[in-house]
Design a protein that fits this description.
Layout: E1 10-17, E2 27-33, H1 36-45, E3 57-59, H2 61-76, H3 81-84, H4 100-119, E4 125-132
Antiparallel strand pairs: 1-2, 1-4, 3-4
């Protein structure tokens, strides 16, 4: 497990070649710690199986584009945060406040997703989400 020794929601995006098995050598594209609004968005906007089994889940280019667009909406109008990217609570999930930290993580997500969209060849590569706590 990456991260420090204190339990918490750790979330990642990785990239690997299509049709290859997921491995420890896959490229890490993004890391979040206790950014539960992103997990909540993934659960609500994909077929992600929210049964706490910590299995990798592929995210399509269209899903990443939608995540990017929703980050933009929230950053442009903070009043939409609770509607578009609500927080969720859980023992290891971190804060559920709509504070400076919340919006900094939305900005980080938007900026990193933009980079992923610009630099990933979705014809040959797969981006997947993985979480652990």
């Amino acid at each position: 497990m990456k991260g420090d020794l204190v339990m918490g929601l750790d979330m990642y995006l990785f990239k690997h070649k299509k049709n290859n098995q997921i491995s420890n050598n896959d490229e890490e594209l993004m890391y979040w710690r206790k950014v539960n609004q992103i997990r909540s968005w993934i659960v609500r906007n994909t077929d992600y199986n929210d049964d706490w089994d910590c299995k990798p889940f592929d995210l399509s280019k269209q899903t990443l584009e939608a995540l990017y667009a929703d980050c933009e909406l929230v950053l442009n109008n903070h009043n939409k945060a609770q509607e578009i990217m609500p927080t969720s609570n859980g023992f290891f999930f971190g804060s559920d406040a709509y504070d400076e930290w919340y919006f900094e993580n939305i900005k980080y997500t938007r900026d990193t997703i933009k980079h992923i969209l610009e630099t990933t060849d979705f014809e040959t590569d797969t981006v997947y989400y993985y979480e652990w706590w």
